[in-house]
Amino acid sequence: MNYQEIRDQAKNGDIILLTVDKKNILSRTTSWFTKSPYTHAAFVFWYKDRLMLVESTTHGGIRIVQASVYSDRNIDIISAPKDWEEIEWRALERSGTAEYGWISAMYIGLREFLFMHFDIKLPPNNSNRNKCCSEFVAEVLSLDDVDISPSKLHSILHKN
User: Tens digits of per-residue pLDDT, 18-27?
Assistant: First the structure.
């Protein structure tokens, strides 16, 4: 879907998944390791008439941005698995916190790659408070496994 289609149907608490950004090395690497087009995840919410996202990024930490920053990307949307009022505070409270590093992002990709191809399961990285995008979403939703890629997040949420 494109940005305008997302604006027309998005509701508070929905989750967007962005497909690979061919201009971004981390996005391309994530896609390669996970064998998935999904490389970024964020929560959607409305503020007045603006469609906003709360997301975790390597270059801005957990932040709130207008969804239009991704207007040039292909976007999928998943209906909110939990009521926004139930998770809003958890999603917004860490806004402005430190960004996560490339190593954290690569660990998730490596963890998923080893499991998918060799049935090797690396332990979750529970010491990292600054979660990558999909980990942040999983943590706010209180999912069992919070060390997950955008692809795995997509799979889990589509089962529910």
Answer: 987 788 777 6
In terms of Cβ atoms closer than 10 Å to its own Cβ (0-12, 13-18, 19+), residue 54 is buried
The top-level CATH class assigned to 3-159 is alpha beta
- Specify the amino acid at residue 13: G
Pairing verdict, β 15-19 and 75-78: antiparallel
Q: How many CB atoms lie within 10 A of CB 25?
A: 9
Tokens 């589509």 sit on residue: 158
pTM score: 0.80
